[in-house]
Every structure is written in C-alpha cells, then in structure tokens.
Amino acid sequence: MTSGDSAQADKPNTSNVSADIGRDIRAIRQSKGMTLTEMADKLGRSIGYLSQVERGISALSTEELRQVAQLFDVPVSWFLVLSDVSESERGLITRSGLRRMSGDSEGGLAEELLSPDLSGSYEVIRSVFAPGARLEKPTLRMTEETAYMVSGKLDIRIGDRFFTVQAGDCFRFKEEPFYWENNSSEPAVAIWVVSPPIY
To answer: 188 and 108 in contact (C-beta within 8 Å)?
Structure first.
C-alpha cells in the first residue's frame, strides 16, 4: 500500500458514516421501545424512508438529523462526531476528543459514551454526578447494568434496598427500579456497562 493509499483509507467515508448513524438511530429507537411506525409519525416521514436511513441506504439532511436528535433528547453533535472518525478506527476506537456527550454539570449529570457506537450487545458510559444532583424518581429499565465508582460517593437504591457506594466500589442490577443521589460536596464519577445499549 502506498502512502497515498494509507491517507485515503483514514479519511471518513460518507456512505459508511451514514450507515453508522443509521445503526445508532435504530439502537436508540429500539432502546426507547419505539417502533419505526411511531418514529415515522413523530417525524412526519415515511416508514420506508426511515427504514432506508437505519440501514444506511439513505442519509438524513442536517435538519432531519436535528429533528431525530430532538426526538431522542441527544445533541445533534452526538451523531455528527462520527464524520470525524477515520475509516480504519470506526467501530473499533473511541478517541478522547471524539466522545459523544449528553447532559451537563448544570443539569446534574454529564455523560460520555466510551463505546465506539451502539451496534454491540452493551455500551460503556462515563457518568459525572454533580454535588447535590439526584434522579427525580426511581427509574426502571429493561437492562442489566454494572457500575464502577471511579471517585466520589453516591447514595443509591436498587429495588427496595439502600446503599452508599464510593471510589473503588462496584454494583450491579438487572431490570429493577434504580435511584441515585449525590449528597456529598464533590462530584461522583462512575463507569457503567449497560446491556443492551440504551444511550
């Protein structure tokens, strides 16, 4: 392979980016229990067109991508960052400057997707819980989740059991109501493994 060939291989491929975006849209839609028909109704698009988008056959316009991001409550940059990932690394490597983010410290929870995409059977997320932040109410998700506390401390509830976890601790739960709050004066950081992906 010549150096020119190598440089060409590292350039993002537009059609492959569309396929990656389509796969992530499908994964998010399914994680939220939304059918293709329901998504089509909410976006005012045909089922056939959105099916082609999810399969990477058709590409969304910037405005359509913005509408999808709004529907799923993620920033539009969450999808667009894929266009900056080189072809050779797509689906394999997540560079620190290209992590997809949601939430913010002002809202109490900022998260980064560490997994390269949502096409696998699980996802890895880095979560930062601001001091004083808490869930509004217990959340039930059809997932199995394991978390490792990197720093700080959280008060959590799994089902009807209460625990305090801190740096170095791990916890796991599966399809049980879960609640957290950070009652300390310091941020808490955790790494989560979630199956199936729900980001």
So the answer is: no
